[in-house]
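Standup notes, protein team

Yesterday: finished cleaning the Streptomyces cyanogenus set.
Today: 4-hydroxy-tetrahydrodipicolinate synthase structure.
Blockers: none.

Input for 4-hydroxy-tetrahydrodipicolinate synthase:
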Amino acid sequence: MTRTRKAAPFGRTLCAMITPFTEAGALDLDGAQRLAAHLVAQGCDGLVLNGTTGESPTTTDEEKARLVAAVREAVGDRAALVAGVGTSDTRHTVELALAAGKAGADGVLVVTPYYSRPPQEAVAAHFQEVADASELPVMLYDIPGRTGTRIAPETMIRLAGHPRIVAVKDCSYDFLGTQKVLAQTELAYYAGCDEHVLALYAIGAAGCVSTVANAVPDRVASILAAFDAGDTGRAAGLQLALTPLTEAMMDAGLPGTVTAKALLARLGLPAGPVRAPLLPAGRETADGLLAVYEALTAG
């Protein structure tokens, strides 16, 4: 049976956008607007705000809402905005989802409750309660390496029956489980790991939520565009060419937030410091990131 690609409810190339701060550590809304406009102009048709890369654990509820409102003002209807609202507390998550809707988000990203490690029945109940309470479509976020808890494929298939649960950001590193859900549901999958962008897209995903796109949005978008054009060889080449930067940003022992902000600062784009407990990248790391970026973009 030939399967058509599922609809992309939040666009195809989404950037997990960093949250710019001033040198004093305050929310930099002007910088956020300039960065968001840049990312959209360079090929992103969706932005994920207040996610892990956006330092959501250290921003206040008020800052989260202000960021969404400011970015909406900057990009208008040129890109979908998905607001991270996940917490370890269902009640708080519902409150953030409602606030995101009022601020102008098009959807919400809801991560599995962390630390308490709820069983699958509780995981499902958490997502269903958030989806019931919010009028916005929901993207589930499966990242057991951070939360300690999978959204099991069987749970995902069950949740797909909810009319507002429409998408998944997949950082499960369980390609077989992902294929199982793709084959049995209409959920729109988004690769949450930059090394999986093309692989997941090739089996029917809707797109990606990319951290590396903070620095090279056009390069990430071009992988999916080449595949859509039928040039799978070029798509593979573009994915492989991105590997050194993906490794430098995502697999060098530092969180992607830290490396993305270090590189953006070197590129003259809004970034600012990270908030504690994160520490900034050192000069040698920043130099290395810039060298890898320049090697990629020189060709």
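Follow-up from PR in the comments: The radius of gyration is 18 Å.
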